[in-house]
Amino acid sequence: MGTNPKTTLYVGGLEENVTEGVLHAAFIPFGDIKDVSMPLDQSTQKHRGFSFVTYLDKEDAAAAMDNMHNAELYGRVLTVNYAQPIKIKGGEQGWASQPVWADADTWFERQQQEEGLQRLQAEHQATIEAAEAEDRKKLTEARDGETEAVDDEPTDPMAQAEAEALSNNPPQ
User: Contact 45/16 with Cβ under 8 angstroms?
Assistant: First the structure.
C-alpha cells in the first residue's frame, strides 16, 4: 500500500455480512473517502473480518478513528486504528515494509561512494608519504652538506687558531 499511514485506517472486528458499501456509508460522515478495501480469504472468498478505509485528509481519518473506535456495527464492536505498512519477509527483524530489491539503487550508490572515498584516502596517503620522503631527502642532503662543510673547514675556534698559527709560523 503506497498510501500515507496517517490517512489509512485499520477497521477490525467486522461481522461477515458487512460489505465495502456498508463501511463506506458508516465512515463517510467524517470526510471524503479515497478507498475502502476488504481483503478476502482465498479459500472462502469472504472478507477476513477487517478492512482498510483510506481518507483524502489525515484530519478526516483522525476524526473517524476518534468516533468509530469501539463503536458498534452489525452487533460487533469495531477496532479502529491507523493502519501499519504492509510487512513482507526480509529486513533486520525478519520482516520489512519493502522488498529487498527496493533499495538496490541506494545500495549501489553507497558502494560507489565508499569506493570513491577509499580511492581518495589512498591518494591522500600516497601524497603524505611522498611529502615525507621529500622532507627526508632534503634533511639528508642538508646533513650531508653540513658534514662536507665540517670536513673542509674546522669550526672549532681552537683548531682554527692552531691552523692559523701553523700557517703563519711553519715548524722548524
Answer: no
Residue recorded with cell 472462502: 44
Q: In what order do the strands lie in the sheet with 79-82?
A: 33-37, 50-55, 8-12, 79-82
Distances (CA, A) of 13 to 43, 53, 98: 20, 14, 27
Could you read off the pLDDT of 20-53 as tens digits, one per residue? 999 999 999 999 999 999 998 888 888 889 999 9
Q: What is the pLDDT of residues 60-104, one digit of tens each?
A: 999 999 999 999 999 999 999 998 877 655 555 555 666 666 667
Distance CA 47, CA 44 (A): 8
**Pairwise CA distance, residues 34 & 50, whole Å:** 17
Answer whether 66's CB lies under 8 Å from 55's CB: no
Closest listed residue to residue 8, CA positions, set 51, 53, 39, 49: 53
Q: Give strand pairing partners of 89.
A: 95
What percentage of the chain has pLDDT greater than the value 70?
Answer: 79
How many CB atoms are located within 10 Å of the residue 97 CB? 14
